[in-house]
Amino acid sequence: MADLPPDIISQILSRIPMKSLFQFRCVAKLWCRIIDHPFFAYMHSSRHNEEHNMLVLISYPTYRQKKLSFRLVEERGRNMKANENSITEFDLNHGALMNSCKGLLCIQYKKKLRYLLLNPLRRDFLVLPKATIKSGYHELVTVTCGFGFDASTSTYKVVRVVCRRKYLTSRVEVHRVGTSSWREIGEVPPHPLQGKPVFAHGFLHWLVSPFIRKSKGMIVSFDIGTEKFQWTPNPKFESTGTAFFQLVDLKGNLGMVHLSWETNTEIWVQKDYKNKEWVRQYRIDIFAPCPRSVDGQLQAIGLWENGEILLKSSQGFFIYNPKTSLRYNQGLGLESDLSTVFYSHQGSLISISKVTEAC
User: What CDD domains does this protein map onto (predicted)?
Assistant: First the structure.
């Protein structure tokens, strides 16, 4: 390929899976320049929009391991194994993954006031300015943060919501990536939010806090472009008994897990986002050989290969295929404890330095 014109090389490389491209960056300087070009990232994503997600094992710092590390998990035969070598590591204390957007991860650290954006496959990161909304020393607060993309202006934004539990009131600040500060906005969610958000179709989506009566499965969404909150209708569940809800990113679509303690686990996908219509894509019988976590719950990690859904309990991992049902995978070849989480990651060639240059 050394004698081929650069445009032909670019066309050939654009047809190669992402994980291989990161290895090919080291082959030649020309290849590296082509793969790192923003237009190539766009061309590759348009041709590989059905490329399988990667499962990333994230190990948070402990007294034994001082770094935040990321490892890829691969399926070997019918078993999943985590690579022993990490793809990237960071010297961070008390870091936590918030969410992802277009293959970039948002990490929170230092008493929930500092954030960084990371492309783990490129070993590329950006430290954001320190957030400005603080809580009182003795005040109980809940802090949640989300990272999203505004297609109308081609800008990335980080949204931080601070809720005072005693009064159930919130304050919101926004950081536009590439600028040097945060700005507080007057818009606040209609109810306090719970957990980590999911970015889909230009919106960040949260569940409503369980401290609110009749909040079961209620979804509040934030429009990254207009910077307004709104309600998003949830699916019409058949079961009305005790249930657990979880929002999940299903390859760019908003997914919702409805785990009923009486009947089954359902996973719904909002494919028609304009009309807010949900489709039930998975239904797993509660009596299937699927042990629950200590609190009786399963966790949906995300899509795996060939349309399968990856689930996790305290006993191990389950891969559910609508055609072949469940199969069990006990371990990943590495220690699994409270300092380890698993994330279904849709990789990206985007360079964060290019993102800030465009802002």
Answer: F-box_AtFBW1-like
How does pLDDT run across 222-280, given as a tens digit for each residue? 999 999 999 999 888 776 556 688 999 988 899 998 887 666 788 899 988 888 899 99
Q: What is the pLDDT of residues 308-356, one digit of tens each?
A: 888 877 666 777 887 777 766 655 554 445 467 777 777 788 888 766 6
Enumerate residues 6+ apart whose C-beta is below 8 A from 77: none
pTM of the shown model: 0.85
DSSP 3-state of 9: helix
Q: Which residues have CB under 8 Å from 195's CB, separation 6+?
A: 144, 206, 207, 247
22: containing domain: 1-51
Residue 73 shares a structural domain with residue 1? no
